[in-house]
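Troubleshooting log. The previous structure file for this entry was overwritten by mistake, so regenerating from the original sequence record. Sequence copied from the archived sheet and checked twice against the printout by T.R.
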Amino acid sequence: MSSFTRLRQQPREIADHERKRIEVVFGLCDTDKDGFLSREDMKMAVVMLFGYKPSKLETDLLVGREPRPDESRGVSFDTFERLMTVKLSEEDAFERTRQIFNAFDVHCRGFLKLDDFQAAFARVAPDLPQSTVVEAFRHVDRNSDGYVSFKDFEEVIIFSQDNR
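Regenerated output below.
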């Protein structure tokens, strides 16, 4: 599928595991457990769901500048779920996979080696046994040449998402 075709896709239906993730994130970010997310809670929720801190403008759009009569204390779960469902459905899976690949490819080589995997997993899962990291690399390195292309990486990501 070309990049142009990707840009013209309709929003996708989100999966059950994504709906569950929205629910879990809301619960974790509702710091005072009042059933509403404050502006700061909402920022943290976006970080947890999408991996980036939203700008002031995006936060204003999500939270709304004027409090709604039924939500003067913040964003309710129903509103949060609706907003995040729309945002997730519009997320481009290709771009998300590219961002993950680039995070692994700290040397900007355009491919990954075992040391890239080891460094990435050391940052996000420092207690993960090295044997598991090596096994993961071998699984993604389909032709056993010691290099993982973006295409190989993308295929594994797509396969894992399809089998949730």
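The beta strands are 36-37, 75-76, 111-112, 148-149. Archived copy saved in two places this time.
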